[in-house]
Design goal:
It is built from 20 helices and 19 strands. By secondary structure, the protein is α/β, with parallel strands linked by helices. An eight-stranded mixed sheet has the order 8-7-6-9-10-12-11-13, sandwiched between helices. Strands 1-3-2 form a three-stranded antiparallel sheet. It has a three-stranded antiparallel sheet with strand order 18-14-19. Strand 4 and strand 5 form a beta hairpin. The chain starts with 11 loop residues before the first helix and ends in a 5-residue tail after the last strand.
């Protein structure tokens, strides 16, 4: 584990003020570097940014970028014009070598959801890590912001809550977001170094302090319960626990399963738990059923598989992540064999990645939706998550007869597409497509298209179907009998919204 000491947050407020004054923010970076170089940073490529900062002269912004984001030494005199350099040296943010200073940690500007200027603090060279390879094999290395952490932040429900828990906090990104809407934030990690980085991230971002507890999974909080639990856990399915930030140390996908199964007892009524995870696709098992078995009693669940990789792709991804592809070819080949041996022993064909959301409920029959949706979505999705569970509540409370008495409106952003051969009198099928949120698409028949098209909240579903039956010369009783299932699907997937019944 890395033993390098971390800075103290004693003068974090002064350092933050200097960074903001210099324009060392997400918007400031974009202005200085330009879009191509800024985007390259997210791919772990620093050369374009280095070239761009050469043109920035010795100004405070270019100095801070080269120092804290690109880890280049800068002259002491330049650093002194950009920040309170003696305080930064005393607190350990910098170290001095002759006439130059070096950063001891990565600091990356990060724009909050409401325009906040935040900073994520992590180990050197790990601000943008990920599949491109962080180039570090140190067990306790702590990563900064990346695609997985921003994905989780985007799907998290952001209603005001009394208490929030970030399990496996890393550099504190989820805890930082939670401070915006939770009265009390608790962050845990098995790596004490990660808790130190979380403290720095919060302090440098001007956010309230969090309760920081060391330990694995829910062990540090005992029987305490929360309104919101979030976790971007070390979910990688690997042969052994080499890297704390990614390898959970349990066999197969047991860490993710344990996290999900134990979360239910830590949620307050109505509370949400939201995780990223990997899961095995095991020979002879349906992966949907496998994940359903993880859901704890008393919880609704929405599980979305976003990607699947065969075991060779998966092994290569994480071998590159650790930089093993740059090691001795024989050592790389042996590690590759170890990964494939592990998957073969567990009868794993492929590995899925996705999101898991739980909601504590008192419903007699919890709703468990497990689906695959690899298509583009529109982040943030927190509101879409809330709407999903609200629709599950509605459908639980309305049988088919009640659905026919209800009134619906077509969601505003839904469009209709007709698919068929050019010149054909009738389309082969009709597709309803959402342009927001999950951006779903679903095929509907003529009745479904006609029904959705006239749903404006003025007529009940049953009266609309009676009118359609008359136009199509069908038996209205038969149409009423066979259509509720289709209505239920359109409501569940968010194409139709129920409207309140008119008053007396």
């Amino acid at each position: 584990m890395s033993t390098t000491s971390l800075p103290t947050p004693d003068h974090a407020a002064e350092l933050r003020s200097a960074m903001l004054a210099a324009g060392f923010t997400a918007d400031g970076l974009l202005d200085l570097l330009g879009a191509p170089a800024y985007a390259a940073l997210a791919r772990s490529e620093t050369v374009p940014a280095l070239r761009a900062t050469r043109g920035g002269g010795d100004g405070p912004l270019a100095t801070l970028v080269r120092l804290f984001l690109l880890q280049q030494p800068v002259p002491y005199v330049h650093a002194a014009t950009a920040m309170p350099v003696e305080a930064a040296l005393a607190d350990g943010w910098l170290r001095r070598e002759g006439d130059e200073v070096h950063a001891t940690v990565d600091v990356r500007p990060y724009g909050g959801p409401d325009g906040e200027d935040w900073f994520i603090v992590s180990d050197l060279g790990c601000a943008v890590g990920g599949a491109g390879g962080i180039g570090s094999r140190e067990e306790g290395v702590v990563l900064g912001v990346g695609g997985a952490s921003t994905t989780l932040a985007g799907i998290t429900v952001r209603t005001p809550v009394g208490s929030a828990l970030d399990v496996g906090t890393g550099s504190g990104i989820q805890a930082l977001h939670a401070t915006r809407h939770a009265t009390r934030v608790t962050a845990t990690d098995v790596n004490p170094r990660a808790l130190g980085f979380t403290r720095l991230t919060l302090a440098l971002s001007g956010a309230p302090e969090a309760e920081l507890l060391i330990g694995s999974l829910f062990e540090p909080v005992g029987e305490e319960t929360f309104d919101l639990i979030v976790s971007n856990p070390p979910f990688v399915i690997s042969p052994g626990a080499r890297l704390t930030y990614r390898d959970g140390g349990m066999g197969g996908d047991d860490l993710c399963r344990t996290l999900v199964q134990e979360a239910g007892a830590r949620l307050n009524p109505g509370g949400y738990a939201q995780f990223l995870g990997n899961w095995q696709h095991v020979e002879g098992e349906d992966w949907h059923d496998r994940l359903r078995s993880w859901v704890p009693r008393g919880c609704d669940a929405w599980i979305v598989q976003r990607d699947v990789q065969d075991v060779t792709q998966y092994a290569e991804l994480w071998l590159r992540d650790a930089g093993d592809h740059r090691a001795d070819p024989d050592a790389y080949a042996q590690r590759y064999e170890d990964w494939l041996d592990e998957f073969e022993a567990r009868k794993t064909k492929s590995v899925g990645f996705g999101w898991i959301t739980l909601r504590r409920t008192d419903a007699a029959e919890p709703s468990i939706v497990v689906e695959e949706w690899p298509h583009t979505v529109e982040q943030p999705l927190g509101e879409a998550v809330l709407a999903h569970f609200a629709r599950q509540d509605y459908l639980r409370e309305h049988d088919d007869a009640a659905l026919l008495e209800a009134r619906f409106v077509l969601v505003e952003e839904v469009v209709q597409e007709q698919v068929g051969s050019p010149g054909a009198e009738d389309p082969e099928h009709v597709v309803l497509r959402q342009n927001r949120g999950m951006r779903r698409a679903t095929k509907v028949d003529t009745v479904g298209a006609g029904f959705a098209g006239v749903c404006d909240g003025s007529l009940s579903a049953g009266r609309i179907l009676d009118a359609i039956a008359q136009l199509m010369q069908e038996d209205p009783v038969v149409l009423r009998d066979r259509t509720p299932e289709a209505i239920r699907l359109l409501v569940e997937q968010g194409f139709l919204e129920p409207v309140a019944s008119p008053g007396p």
